[in-house]
Amino acid sequence: GENVEQHPSTLSVQEGDSAVIKCTYSDSASNYFPWYKQELGKGPQLIIDIRSNVGEKKDQRIAVTLNKTAKHFSLHITETQPEDSAVYFCAASRTGNQFYFGTGTSLTVIP
Amino acid sequence: NAGVTQTPKFQVLKTGQSMTLQCAQDMNHEYMSWYRQDPGMGLRLIHYSVGAGITDQGEVPNGYNVSRSTTEDFPLRLLSAAPSQTSVYFCASSYDSGLAAAGELFFGEGSRLTVL
């Protein structure tokens, strides 16, 4: 099956700086790549997703890039704020029914 | 709008006991799934369903059973609990299934299970 690796496992940034989280995947047939944010004690929530026919997608301060040749995708958060502190998960899917998640990145934004 | 509701939120079991984690959604979603979340391992898919009467195995199905008799409910059964099943369990639903329709998974708030 698919193997998704995520780095770094922890990340601390100063408020206002940018944060980048990277994921690689093993199944070249994967076509859908969502990112989820999980706050303490809650379930994950989708923040952005990208499909294989698109190289980059932006939504305000959040952007995702996809390199299908290298089989990696990244989450970029600009102008970080304390409320961005959370655990972020990347995921990959080739069927839309089975999702393979990375191991998570704990992001801390220091005021 | 309740979304995805999981019960119970916390449960302690002894080895060998059985129990059912309940999941209900009120969004008329066809796709429902169960994940377990363990430290350092992310979320791993246990079972999923693309509609009433249809279930399939995910990445880590051993020790768990599911059924989908209605669109709204997708219970997860542990027939004989083991310490290795100590975890946080999340139910998630989506409007549709399949790659063309792949979209947002809506997660419940989780059920923390401890097996002694």
Can you characterise this structure?
The complex is a heterodimer of chains A (111) and B (116). With 111 residues, chain A is an all-beta fold. Chain A is 0% helix and 55% strand. In chain A, the strands form two sheets. In chain A, strands 2, 4, 5, 9, 10 and 11 form a six-stranded mixed β-sheet that branches. In chain A, strands 1-3-8-7-6 form a five-stranded antiparallel β-sheet, with no helix packed on it. In chain A, strand 4 and strand 5 form a beta hairpin. Chain B has no helices and eleven strands. The N and C termini of chain B lie far apart (36 Å). In chain B, strand 5 (42-51) and strand 6 form a beta hairpin. Helices cover 0% and strands 50% of the residues of chain B. Chain B is an all-beta fold and 116 residues long.
- Main beta-sheet strand count, sense and barrel state of chain B: 7 strands, mixed
Which word captures the global form of chain A?
globular
Poorly predicted regions of chain B: none
State the secondary-structure class of chain B. mainly beta
N→C terminal distance of chain B:
36 Å
Major sheet summary line of chain A: 6 strands, mixed
Q: Summarize the amount of helix of chain B as a percent range.
A: under 10%
Range of strand content of chain B: over 45%
Tell me the number of helical segments of chain B per DSSP (H or I, 4 or more residues long): 0
